[in-house]
Amino acid sequence: MNKDQTHGRVEQVKGKVNEAVGKVTNNPAKELKGDLQQAVGKQQANYGDVKEQVKKDIKHNS
Questions:
Q1: Residue 62, SS3?
Q2: Which pLDDT score is estimated for 8?
């Protein structure tokens, strides 16, 4: 697991927490922040996944 995968997944969890807190406290701005964190985290994790796959493919084809 590379740092992009790790950071992305951590960001997704933080986003879920912020979204839940926003819903409980009826704070739409906090909910939106959580949604955005989750989206950014997902993209970063996906980027990390692609990097790992490329490394595996290069290693396998060498």
A1: coil
A2: 98
